[in-house]
Amino acid sequence: MATIFYDDDADLSVIQGRKVAVLGYGSQGHAHSLNLRDSGVDVRVGLREGSPSWARAEEQGLRVLETNAAAAEADVIVILAPDTAQKGMWEQGVREAVQPGDALVFGHGFNIHYGLIEPPAGVDVFLAAPKSPGHIARRTYEQGQGVPGLLAVHQDATGGAHDLGRSYAKGVGLTRAGVLETTFAEETETDLFGEQAVLCGGVSHLVQAGFETLVDAGYQPEAAYFECLHELKLIVDMMYEGGISWMRHSISTTAEYGDYVSGPRVIGDESRAAMQQILAEIQDGTFARNFVAEIESGGEFFAAKRAAGRSHPIETVGRELRAMIPFIDTPDEEY
Fold it and tell me: Contact at 8 Å (CB) between 130 and 165?
């Protein structure tokens, strides 16, 4: 039976009695920093000199220091830089700033699970991971709500890591919705698998393939976009609210029948075998080694794939159609 912690299971005063340094101010970094600050926690942000996020963090009322200085000043060091930047950050001064009795906190288990960062024996190590993008974790906190999260203790050097972890999760707002107790291995491997096979890799390629199939058959690109991408949010919202069965109850009987007879032809034995292979490569470290090697070699493959994705016809059609729908809050296209 899963263990899930809520507000009553956590003592906020534990994290309020510590000095916290959040290293990084991206999607997760800004949410953790601001939510902790608003929960009465002593927070400072650690960034490299010249970081474009420095001014933004100060404008939002946070105290900003150089990365190593922030880590040295705190006794809870939260590493929320990108996965591929964390090892370098650790080796370039954060490791020396960590003292016995301190706590290291992560938002994702990648660097610990795959041995890229090896924490000293005398410190607590845990992760507190919102199951949402950072801007949603921040927005729901401000609304008095929260997003679910994961909590895992990798190392309990002081005997207080579990209490501190629950308190930290409460400060970020995760215990409002519920925090699932897990392990670094489970969090890392399920997160990577979900991203690759379903949420990002699976969905994006399914959408592109559906769009291409319709356009190649002579249908209007605009009609293909609405059918294969725009309506996806409406279907996912129904699954989010009530599960797959609720979605099937809510759609037409024609669509439901098509789900049963055609879905298994798209996601069949070949797709399931591919998913099993993807999971195996995550579990044995193959994906992590390849990813780190790609970034360290300059990221040429990564950059080429990103550019190809942005130039796909579905992106051009989508930009034009979204501009015509006034209630869609479109992002800055220069990203």
Answer: no
- The tens digit of pLDDT for each residue in 3-32 reads 999 999 999 999 999 999 999 999 999 999
Phi and psi, residue 168, nearest 5°? -60, -45
Distance CA 18, CA 7 (A): 19
Asked whether the beta carbons of 23 and 89 are under 8 A apart, the reply is yes
Q: How far apart are CA 240 and CA 234, in angstroms?
A: 10
Q: Are 181 and 151 in contact (CB under 8 A)?
A: yes
Task: Output DSSP code: residue 227.
Answer: I
47 pairs with which residues across the strands?
66
What DSSP string describes 191-219? HHHIIIIIITHHHHHHHHHHHHHHHHTT-
**How far apart (Å, rounded) are the C-alpha atoms in residues 183 and 113?**
10
Tell me the pLDDT tens digit for each residue of 266-281.
999 999 999 999 999 9
The pTM is what? 0.92
Euclidean distance between CA atoms 49 and 64, whole angstroms: 10
- Which amino acid is located at 318 in the chain? G
pLDDT > 70 fraction of the chain, expressed in percent and rounded: 99
Q: How far apart are CA 331 and CA 335, in angstroms?
A: 8
Strand order, beta sheet including 103-106: 4-5, 179-181, 149-155, 124-130, 103-106, 76-79, 19-23, 42-47, 63-66
Residues known to be catalytic: 108
Mean predicted lDDT score pLDDT of the chain? 96
Q: In whole angstroms, give the CA distance from residue 245 to residue 248.
A: 5
Tokens representing residue 66 in the block: 């150089």
Is residue 287 within 8 Å of 193, Cβ to Cβ? no
Distance CA 235, CA 229 (A): 10
